[in-house]
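Researcher: We're teaching a course module on how sequence relates to structure. For the next exercise, students receive a sequence and then see the predicted structure as tokens, so they can try to spot secondary structure elements on their own. Here is the exercise chain.
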Amino acid sequence: MNPTGTSVSHASENLILVSPEDEFLGTITKQEAHRLGGQLHRAFSVFLFTPEGQVLLHERSRLKPLWPGYWTNSCCSHPRHGESYAEAAHRRTREELGVQTSLTEIYQFEYQAHFKSIGSEHELCKVYVGCINKCTEITAHPEEIQNWDWFDTSEVNEWTTTSPQLFTPWFLMEWRALQTIYQPKLQETLTRREPNAPH
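Model: And here is the predicted structure for the students to work with:
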């Protein structure tokens, strides 16, 4: 678990540039990768569910340069140079939430989104799902997360329909995919997962 107050994200950290086929093309700093227009780089999103089917969502810190104060999935970030998608997903889940659990890859997709005239995301993103008990202690990193809670699927479906402007664009795409085309794979994954099983 990362000590509270220690930064886990830096503008100068080296991210991984890729082709749409996920071929390694080199490295780029986080700041450069997210300039307006964006350059395609590896990323991941993690969704943590309880055995009862609730999902953990968080509100991004107001300190974030892109989409500050927007609601999004449990955890999301980027593999650093020399790090696999899975290694990065487990690392960041520990750093942001203080949680360690098994994660299963559900799917991968490419998207591009622009935040006002400030910057952009252009990511090849793997989506992971994990299962933890609701009583698991969550230690939210204050530079990354300003609020979090558990929500029923029906609540999220209604919220994203009535107020989509409150959510990050990648979350909206991922949630809709998990609730439609990848719903069978999601349910299969959650059914066979033991909460907080070591990875």
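Model: If you want an answer key for the exercise: The mean pLDDT is 93. The longest strand covers residues 103-115.
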